[in-house]
Every structure is written in C-alpha cells, then in structure tokens.
Design goal:
The protein has 429 residues and is α/β, with parallel strands linked by helices. It is built from 13 helices and 16 strands. The chain is globular and about 65 Å long.
C-alpha cells in the first residue's frame, strides 16, 4: 500500500495547478513549504518538492508566505490633503476644524485620484482589504460618500473596500446629520460609525450610540466607531458602547477605534471597562502612529502616551487590531500605507517586546483583523482564498524589524505586484 505522502503526490499529479509557490516558509512555523493554487483557492500546502509542475511558478527563495494584510481603519477622502492645510497646533481639534472648512469642496474626481495612489501603494505593500470612514454630516452631506464610493468601484479589481458612515460632527443635537446617516446607508455605506466623545456630555454620547445602533439594527450591519479619541479621562464612552453591544446582542459585530482616553484612566476604571469590552466581544483598533502624534499636546511632562492600553487588552483576551488611520494630511504628516510600519510603531508604544508580544503585533493587521472582518477563508491553508504576500522575512520579529521592501502580492491566485529592491556595493572598503 502506498504511503499517505505517496498517495498525496499521486493525486496531485493528476492535474496541473494554476500557480505554485516553491521554496517558501510558513508564517506560523517557519517550516519550508510550497503552496499550490487552483481557481483562486489554495489547494495544497505541502513539504518541499511535493507538488508537480504548474502553469506558473514562483521561487520564494526561502521567504515567508503570509496571508495578505488588512487595513482596518483609514480615511480615504482626506488622504494626501496637505498643501496649505497645515495643522499649526498639531491637535486633533485643529485638524477637525481645518477639514470642516474644505470637505464640502472635495470633488469626486479629486477623491478618486488621491484614493488611487493610496490603493496602489497599499496593494504593493500587501494590503488587499481596507475599511474607510466616510464623513457624513450637515456640511458635506453625501458629497464625500459619492467620491469614496466611486473610488471603491474604480479599484475593486485590486482591493476590497468597506465604507463606514462616520458622523464626526455629532448626532445627539444634530438631526440633519442623523438624516444623512440614514441616507448614507441607502447610498453605499457598509457599516455604521460614530464618534460619541465628539458630543458635549456623556449623556449625549449615550444618545449618539443609541442612534447608531438603531441604524445598524435596521440594516443588520456591523458597527465601527471612533471611541474616546482624547486624553481626557472624563470620556468613558467605551463603557457605554460595551453595554449597548450586550443589550442589543451585537457581540462580535462592534469595533472601537482609537480608545485613547484609556491611557488616562486610573487602573481600576480601566480594568472594569476592559472586562466589559471582553464580555461584549468588542474588537479594538489602536492607531498608535496618529494618536501618539496628536494626543498629549496640552500636557506637560511626563506626557501621556495617548494610545489604548494594548498590552492589558491583549492580556484580557480582547481582539486588538492596528490601523494606519491617516496619510499625510492635517491629522498626520507621515505614513506609507504599510501595515508592518504601523505594527512596529504599535509594538514600540505599547511595550510589546517579548517574542509572543511581537507575534501579537504582527498578527494585528493579519489574523486579528481577519477575525474582526469576519473573513472565513483567510490564511495559508487548504481551502483558503489565495490572497497572499511573500515577504523577505523568516519570523515575526524579522518582518517587523526589517519591514522588507521585497514583496510579491497575490490576489485570488493572480500575481498583482512584485517588488525587487537590490543594493549594489561600489566599494566595500
């Protein structure tokens, strides 16, 4: 009787695969593997030299084969809005004021053009999913949504984009914005967003959350809110969000972004609310690069870190994701749409230095984000969709430390991009 390996090899020899990745390494075990792909799905993950010839082959040269990255918190419409819109104070408040003055004048063509740069850069870095918060308010009405929806359509062959209706200028005392939110769900938004700490009181914040959940329940969609993006410990709307999530039975369907006030809470308050977040199965997105830039501007020394309590959330078993948030605009002057950069900055600011913590940071824009998105066929495994990035790395620490430039990106079994950077020495002496 043939061995199981021989039967496996015999079976695979009966057909020709579309694509085989040779000489790769597992993103989980670092073991040598090769990956077979047929009709956009992974049909084999096997030891070296196990798979027959294919229509196309890639020599990974010992590099890591990872599932593609996920950008879970971004704002497409204001990316690259930089010239003449400088935030002099560097605060979140001034950034919002600057943006409010220009958002009504953004054209569909301009949003699509800038979004194109963002998408192509993100995809080349290995990102194949992106969530974008779209400002919905009494100023912009649905004009920004039209532009971002057009961008989503223009680049759907490269990336999956989800749109979140985002009422940045409030709901509790803003009936016109409430009406715009309902209309946004009828005109292309996929999720309901919110920003309860933008209200004047915790009472209004509770009403803000209540309105958002009314809309989410009506359309049976998930909720993804900006929460407590401030270093003022007064704001504890994350607790209100957790309580509403449990009340409505929306566990696992709610995401809280930023959560900066958590860094200013006392330990007892933080422990109490983290327990509620865990019970509500809320996903937390930390935006460490942006929040470390914006928060603490009004504080003396020692300055607060201004980000969520990532380490404590991980220790409590909460699903933590990281996000880019902004790209060279009035909120943040930097960024390169690379989840590895965001993950390593998160590791620095959250003190994630032990090997298992570095693995956790590496997983934030990968497996953790996939869990938040509800992706069922994600990973490097038989039956998963062939959405992959081949990295010049052999471990989580090397991926984050080196942020390797050389990457091959595969979407649904089709090679989208290959980046090869070479250093040429002219004189070693």
């Amino acid at each position: 009787m043939k061995s199981s390996q021989s039967l496996f090899t015999f079976y695979l020899s009966l057909f020709t695969m579309d694509l085989i990745i040779r000489n790769g390494r597992s993103d989980r075990t670092n073991e040598p593997i090769e990956v077979g792909i047929e009709a956009g799905l992974i049909t084999a993950v096997a030891p070296p030299h196990s798979l027959p010839a294919a229509n196309q082959e890639i020599d990974a040269q010992g590099r890591m084969v990872s599932p593609a990255f996920i950008e879970s918190h971004f704002h497409l419409e204001n990316a690259l809005l930089w010239d003449g819109l400088i935030n002099q104070s560097g605060t979140l408040e001034e950034a919002i004021e600057i943006y409010a003055k220009v958002k009504h004048d953004l054209t569909v063509e301009d949003i699509v053009r800038r979004s194109g740069y963002v998408v192509e850069t993100a995809v080349a870095n290995g990102t194949l999913w992106l969530r974008s918060h779209v400002d919905i308010d009494h100023i912009a009405k649905l004009s920004i949504l039209k532009g971002v929806a057009a961008a989503r359509d223009a680049y759907r062959h490269l990336i999956e984009i989800q749109l979140i209706a985002f009422p940045q200028l409030g709901l509790a005392q803003n009936p016109e914005a409430v009406e715009m939110m309902w209309q946004a769900m009828e005109n292309g938004c996929d999720l309901v967003g919110g920003m309860p700490h933008g209200e004047k009181t915790m009472e209004d914040a509770a009403r803000h959350i209540e309105i958002a959940f009314e809309i989410a329940q009506k359309y049976d969609v998930d909720v993804d809110m900006h929460i407590d993006e401030t270093d003022d410990p007064y704001w504890q709307s994350l607790e209100l969000l957790a309580e509403k999530t449990i009340e409505t039975g929306w566990q696992g369907r709610v995401t809280a972004g930023h959560c900066c006030a958590m860094s200013a809470w006392d330990d007892a308050t933080a422990a109490r609310i983290i327990d509620k977040v865990k019970a509500a199965n809320i996903h937390i997105i930390t935006n460490a690069p942006i929040n470390s830039m914006l928060e603490g501007r009004h504080s003396g020394y020692p300055k607060p870190r201004g980000i969520a309590r990532v380490k404590e959330l991980l220790e409590a078993g909460v699903n933590v994701v990281c996000g880019q948030d902004d790209l060279q605009n009035m909120f943040y002057p930097f960024g390169k749409m690379d989840p590895l950069e965001v993950a390593v900055i998160t590791a620095h600011l959250a003190h994630l230095g032990a090997p298992h913590e570095i693995e956790a940071a590496f997983d934030m824009p990968r497996y953790n984000a996939a869990r938040m998105w509800g992706l069922q066929n994600y990973g490097v495994a038989v039956g998963a969709a062939a959405n992959l990035v081949i990295l010049d790395a052999d471990s989580a620490v090397s991926a984050l430390r080196r942020q390797p430039a050389n990457r091959t990106v595969i979407r649904n079994g089709r090679v989208l991009t290959e980046r090869k950077v070479e250093t040429v020495w002219r004189d070693r002496n």
